[in-house]
Amino acid sequence: MRKSKTAVVNTQSPATDSDLSIPQSFTVTVSVRRFNPDVDQETYLQDFEVEMYATDRVLDALHKIKWEQDGSLSFRRSCGHGICGSDAMRINGLNRLACKTLMKDLDVTKPIIIEAIKGLPLEKDLIVDMEPFFAAYREVLPFLMPSGAEPERERIQSQEDRARFDDSTKCILCAACTTSCPVFWTDNQYFGPQAIVGAHRFIFDSRDSGAASRLEVLNSKEGVWRCRTTFNCTDACPRGIQITQAIAEVKQALIRGKI
Questions:
Q1: DSSP per residue, 67-89
Q2: Rg of the chain over CA atoms, in angstroms?
Q3: Going from the N-terminus, what domains does the chain have, and what CATH number goes with each?
Q4: pLDDT in 10s for each residue of the chain, 259 residues
Q5: Which of 68, 101, 164, 254 has the fewest Cβ atoms surrounding its Cβ within 10 A?
C-alpha cells in the first residue's frame, strides 16, 4: 500500500507593506562654495537644504539643488558612474568623485561642504580650468612609442609584463590625485602625481621604446623629485591606484638608469 504524503501548510500571513523596511528620507545641509567671476571678488559658502536618502550620492544632491533650487549652480559631470572622472571635487575637505560618494558614508548631521579642487584656476563655482593639468600630462608623452617594423598582428605581451604596469592603466584623468598634493598647491610648475603615473604606464610597458625620453622629462627640477611622499595622492585616487608606489618606481628607474 502506497503511503500518503503529508502536506506542508504555511501558517504565516503574507507579508504586508508595513512589514517591509521602507527607506527613510532626511534633510541635509549642503554648503557649496560659490564663485561667479562676473560679479564676485571672492568665493563664499551658500547653504542649501536638500531631502536625501542614505543611498543617494553627493552628485544627486547637486542635481537637486541645480534642478529645484538654483539653476545657476555650475559643476562638471558626465557619465555619473565613476568612469569619466569629470566630477572630482572637495567634499568635506577631501578630494572625491561626487558620483561615488554616498550620503551614508558622510556625517549628515553636519553640513556637507563641497568645494572645487585646489591648485587649478577657478572658473565658476565647482568648475576649474583643467588645461594646466592636461598640459603636464601631454608633456610626459602618454602614448605608445614602439620600435621596429609594424607587426602584422598585435604586439604580444606576457601576463607578467602586463602586470608590471597594470595598476597605472586605471587612471581616469580626474585630477583628484594631483590637486590633493601640497607641492602642487604651492608650485603650479610641478608635473604632479597624475603626470608621473601617466608616464609610468608607458615607461614600464615592454612594447614601448620611449622610456628614456619620458624619464628625461621627469628628471627636471619640476619633475618626479618634487614629490614629498605625503600619500595624499594615493588616498585621493577614486580608482585605488598605488600612486606613491608608482612614483617611487619611476625614481628608482632614474637612479638605476634602467627599467
A1: HHT-TT-----SSSSSSS-TTEE
A2: 25
A3: 24-128 (3.10.20.30), 131-144+159-256 (1.10.1060.10)
A4: 444 444 444 445 555 555 557 889 999 999 999 999 999 999 999 999 999 999 999 999 999 999 999 999 999 999 999 999 999 999 999 999 999 999 999 999 999 999 999 999 999 999 999 999 999 999 999 999 998 888 889 999 999 999 999 999 999 999 999 999 999 999 889 999 999 999 999 999 999 999 999 999 999 989 999 999 999 999 999 999 999 999 999 999 999 986 6
A5: 68
